Amino acid sequence: MEAHERDQEPALARKPPEPKPRKSSGATKAKPRPSKAASRPKTESAAASPRPEPASPPPPPEAATSSADAIEALSMNLAKAALRAQSLLAETALRQADRPAALSPDPFNAAPAMTSVAASLVSRPDKLFAAQADLFQSYMNLWAGAARRAAGEEVQPVAQPPKGDKRFNDPEWSQNPMFDVMKQSYLLTSDWLNRLIASAEDVDPLVKRRAEFFTKMMTDAFSPTNFLASNPAALRELMATNGESLVKGMENFAADIERGGGRLKVSQADYGKFEVGRNVATAPGQVVWRGDLFELIQYTPTTVQQREIPLLIFPPWINKFYILDLRPENSMIRWLTGQGFTVFVCAWVNPDRDKAGYGFDEYLKGGIYEAVEKTLEQAGTDQVNTVGYCIGGTLLGSALAHMAARGDRRIASATFFAAQHDFAEAGDLLLFTDEHWLGEIERQMDEAGGVLPGAAMADTFNALRANDLVWSFFVSNYLMGKDPPSFDLLFWNADQTRMPKRLHLDYLRQMYGRNALARGEMVMGGERLDLSKVTIPLYFQASKEDHIAPMNSVYRSARLFGGDVTYTLAGSGHIAGVVNAPAARKYQHWLNDQLPPTLDEWRAGATEHPGSWWEHWAGWLHAKSGGWVPARNPDKGPLKPIEPAPGAYVKVKS
Questions:
Q1: Which residues are catalytic?
Q2: pTM for the full model?
Q3: CA distances from 644 to 296, 327, 615, 619, 639 (A)
Q4: DSSP codes of every residue in 24-75
């Protein structure tokens, strides 16, 4: 999964444009007034009787007037922002009043988990007392250090943000003693609380993990960076703009409330800067077939010859396919055509209510099988190589087991990007698959007519990385009044898709809940699926920092299959670990020809290589793609072009 998945990584970031002059949004600006004193003539008596010089001369009249104007403007803007916030809250409350009540005031079902952990901690008072003493000692060290620093000593901080935590990057958090103490106090307390929850014993591992997850969410939410009064960067912006930043922030807040139909939908990018087919998803090609579930896109060749066996890519249906074709410089689709492969992509439909009853059987037959058949027809071959990304890879792996059961050899090889088939260690998304949460998901889908709204899945993925995908934008957009960045990856992330009710619930219950595919208990298309019967060559890619398809989960999945399996570990996360063009020279990857019982053993024998893993994969793929044939023109195949890439399905908005 993706978004959500969704992993916003610097490898895909384009340089933001120069900031435009800020608009006032109706805010009051301080304007200097002409000084009357400057033109007033001196009297003779004043000249004859000079007064003694005061100890501290008063500021010039112009400065005093300008300061008064600034204070007046600041006061007016603060009042405007407060009134705007009040009206927004009232309007939102009225909108929500007509909506049906939620299934539970605790939709994530965190309360039972917290209760279990609390009971465990209370039952061991010695451990709880030791933890409290440790916290007290940490605070004593903090206060003593603050006192020594005030006396002019160099003092090492008691607490520091973990590596990669950007919340406290502003220099004031270290240079200003007050903000430094505030930062360290928060870090001490949040770290102490998270460690305390993690230390609970005799608690079901999944229950404990849920408590840890929501404790982390809570401590992240209460960071001082998320409040105007305790964020030095936001306060500095407030004073520099005489309060205009806060007025603009409230306007941004109002726009996001409106965009969410009465619910806050935080903007992560300037969505007006991008258009699918114009400046993202621009690789040339043709839609050569259109069915109920997908459009088949064949991309225009860029080499004189191409490999005989074509390559068919199945992206996740939770997201749109063009993460593989954001910009020319990082487009995997363009890169693959440049390597001499005939590239086809299954562009999934954005399903609506008419597909509420579609499940795995429909996506197997009308998706995988239909796409394979049409690709072979267009390319004029007997076999095809395939790629499955994330949940698209889960379905592809299931299809391979189905084909193995029926002796179908039309797929010559398969590559999996961040795809899971064994969900025993599937990451934090497991926390959202208990029956209480599934009941809430089902309620949302029923309310939407039998599909899961795209925003619902996006909210779940954003929660997995709240500091990066929620709070950073909350601070920038609302507290500082800045416009969202022009970032193509975040535009893609917000271009959401719906999911059919039956398919989504089966996925969560069968895969995440029961781990049925790994256990050999999954039935699809009339066959019980046994992954060990799949003996074609397979290439598994995982990413070291992937929080959606963790590297160990992918490794466990790779070992379920029965053929020759290559496992490659990439640097970074779920998106940037996959979409990392060689020209960028980013990150690294690890290779090991063996597939020992555990990932730790594999890593111990692996060799690290700089940069992208794409070239290693391309070498593997070339060896399984037959000889060279004249390049295939999508305009001249048996399937007649319907419309240019990226097609129509990808442009349907949720």
A1: 390
A2: 0.85
A3: 11, 17, 29, 30, 14
A4: -TT---------SGGGPPPPHHHHHSPPPPPSSPPPPHHHHHHHHHHHHHHH
